[in-house]
Amino acid sequence: MKRNTATGSRGTEPSATPVPVSRWSRTATGFTGVSVLAVAVMAVIPFIIGGPAEQPLITLLTFVAMASLWNLLAGFSGLTSFGQQAYIGVGAYALYLVAEHGVNPFGGIAVAAIIAAVVALPVSALVLRLSGGYFAVATLVVAATFQIIATLSPSVGGTTGVSVPGVAGYGDVLREALTYWATLVVAVASVAGVYLLVRRTFGLDARALSSDPVAAASSGVRVGRIRLLAYLAAAGGAGAVGALIALQTLYVEPTSIFSIQYSVYMLFMVLIGGMGTIEGPILGALVLFALQETLSSYGSWYLVIVGGLAVAATLAASRGLWGFASERFGWSLLPVGYRVRQPPQSDPQPPPK
Amino acid sequence: MNWVNAVIQGILLGGQYALIACGLSLTFGVMRIVNLAHGDLAVCGAYLGLVLSSALGVPVWVTLPLLLPAAFGAGMALQLLLFGRALRHGVLAPVLVTFGLSVMVENLLQVAATSDPRGLPGGSLALASFHITSGITVSWLFLTAFLTACAVLSGLQLLLSHTSWGRKVRATADDLDTARLVGIRVRPVFATVAGIAIATAALAGVFIGTIGTFDPQTGTDVLIFAFEAVVIGGIGSLWGTLIGGVALGVTQVVVGEVNQAYAVLAVNLLFLAVLTIRPGGLFTSRQVVREAAGQGAAG
Fold it and tell me: Fewest Cβ atoms nearer than 10 Å: which of A6, A77, A111, A204?
């Protein structure tokens, strides 16, 4: 399937008067500046405030990473996986195994991410044959299978689980600060990675195939390759998140690390924030964090509300909070599309999304 | 003799899986919705059976004339209020909505009934059994479940093939727009299909609750089993679903005979193996496979 460049299938047909098109804006520059500053401030928090600020921020940053990665899958590539906990679990156990073999556990996060992506490769050959709801349930089956395998493996503690080795040497303060920094790195890398990936041709291809796979394939999008790349990237990211969770809890146990709750959270954050935008999942992570802080004492009711809001968001506000805001006010802090700067007067076309 | 017994028990167990799965298969075949809350709704049926039978002080079978219409009504309501709307929001919306519904149902059950495992009072039928030979004992309850599954599947097949409702359903499933064009009112067709799907799920839930125990989290496992039966049997084929269920049941019991811990793992691996070798399942029509695989062929 070769791309037909002659007909300009990329949507940039040459017209008589060249239209100035830009991808960036002054707002985007400003927001990038603010983001860099915010990350810099967050990076020095362990020196200024320390422990009390680290714990909630670790939770929030983990949410941000999970939401951005799930958005890459479901929002941009149309792969609604409810089985990403499979790779969270693989990452956590991989961290345990490499730490057991003497690798520094903080360095082990990268190894865990790679292992998760490698494990995802054969799995993708199976699940990517399906799409939509069938893909969703197949990913659930994969996660359930991984959980059973972990339960049946005495080398990783079976049902009782294992504690993460190699962290006893650090003091509590240093260990927490290192975990915090690692979480910050993973969260920033997830958001920035997804952003940079989506700004490439990949993003256009992925969005094309998620809205109409057949049409996308017929205009030259390599559907299989795009889906594979999205799936592997999301799995690797989930592996890093799993390794972080293992470092936070210092204990890996199959029932909780393979919990479907992670998928519930990912779905909620992305739906509330706005699917298929870069800003949305971050906003969704903030909303979930706020909900968790205020409602988690209500136990199951908290999850009833989370599920209900996700349903309501899909039906009533399918573009989420960020989609609403950007539509209403024309905001775009991290643009992924192209904008016409000065629409030519002879042919007033609405700026493409 | 042990093995013969295991296979027989597995076939009977497969009937239950087919009973859960046929609603899932029907919903997908007609509305193109994979209802991720299907298992949770089956468990809801079991809880409703528990409430009714303890309120009335009768075995759960006696409550079926109340329970099944209630489940049918609930299915219609869900279709009209949720699924139908979700379908208008594109292909991903039904997946997200039914998953959200599943989360809500599980946690509402958790609030209402706690996570204690429950069982349903099956009356004398639950414990009765008969011997075929000295080594093979068949429980009446398992046999009833299997025969019920066969009856429900035959009934559905007859309804679909020979009634005017069935013609409307098949026409709608084949081509929604053309069906509308020739004057079929799609909303009531979809609503009755969803009603039947949820009623069969509730019936399956009653068998699950009578044969074993259930708690609010059982729904996900039920969904996975039902889904595996549907895919192994072939998406959209009712009798294939029965074969799929039987394949699951036999695998589970035979492997369980060797080592109980590996039974569910073996079932999942069987599913993944079928997905590898015959992604369309064992019995299926080509068109449905293409739809389930979506762009798989295009890649």
Answer: A6
Could you give all domains of chain B from N- to C-terminal order, each with its CATH number? 2-297 (1.10.3470)
Q: How many CA atoms lie within 13 A of B128 on its CB side?
A: 8
Q: What is the DSSP letter of B82?
A: I
Residue B205 phi, psi (nearest 5): -60, -40
If phi > 0 it is left, if psi is from -120 to 50 it is alpha, else beta; for residue A334 that is beta
Q: Nearest chain A Cα to B293, which residue?
A: A130
* Torsion angle in degrees (nearest 10) through CA of A60, A65, A66, A67: 90
Residue A163's domain comprises 45-260
Contact at 8 Å (CB) between A188 and A275?
no
Chain B interface test: which of A305, A311, A318 (most B C-beta within 10 Å):
A311
Q: Enumerate the H helices of chain B as residue ranges.
A: 2-31, 38-56, 64-78, 84-87, 92-113, 140-162, 164-174, 176-181, 186-211, 218-233, 238-258, 263-277, 286-293
Q: What is the DSSP letter of A128?
A: T
Which structure tokens are listed for A336? Answer: 């992924």
Is A322 inside a domain boundary? no
Task: List the beta bridge partners of residue A339.
Answer: A22
CA distance B226 to chain A (A): 10
pLDDT of B292 reads: 54
Q: Which of B34, B100, B223 sits opposite A307 (nearest CB)?
A: B100
- Work out the minimum CA distance from A102 to partner chain B, whole angstroms: 31
Q: Does residue A321 lie within any of the structural domains?
A: no
Show the tokens assigned to A249.
């809890």
Q: Structural domain tally of chain A?
A: 1
Interface with chain B: mutation pick from A77, A129, A153, A296, highest number of B CBs within 10 Å? A129
The model's pLDDT over B266-275, given as tens digits with 9 standing for 90+, comes to: 999 998 888 8
Distance CA B129, CA B137 (A): 7
ipTM score for this prediction = 0.82
| Nearest CA distance, A224 vs chain B (angstrom) | 4
Q: Quick one: pLDDT band at residue A350, thresholds 50, 70, 90?
A: low
- Give the β-pairing of A251-252 and B137-139: unpaired
Percentage helix, strand, coil for chain A under 3-state DSSP, each rounded to 5: 70, 0, 30
Residue A298 placed within a domain = no
Q: Is residue A349 part of a domain?
A: no
- Say if strands A162-163 and A251-252 run parallel, antiparallel, or are unpaired: antiparallel
pTM: 0.84
Stated as kind and residue range, the H or E segment containing A21 is strand A21-22
Give B-chain residues touching A254 at CB under 8 angstroms. Answer: none
- The answer to whether residues A243 and A98 touch, using CB atoms and an 8 Å cutoff, is no
* A113, amino acid identity: A
Non-local (6+) Cβ contacts of B210 within 8 A are B60, B119, B120, B121, B122, B126, B141
In percent, the amount of chain B with pLDDT more than 90 equals: 47
Contact B82 A227 (CB under 8 A): no
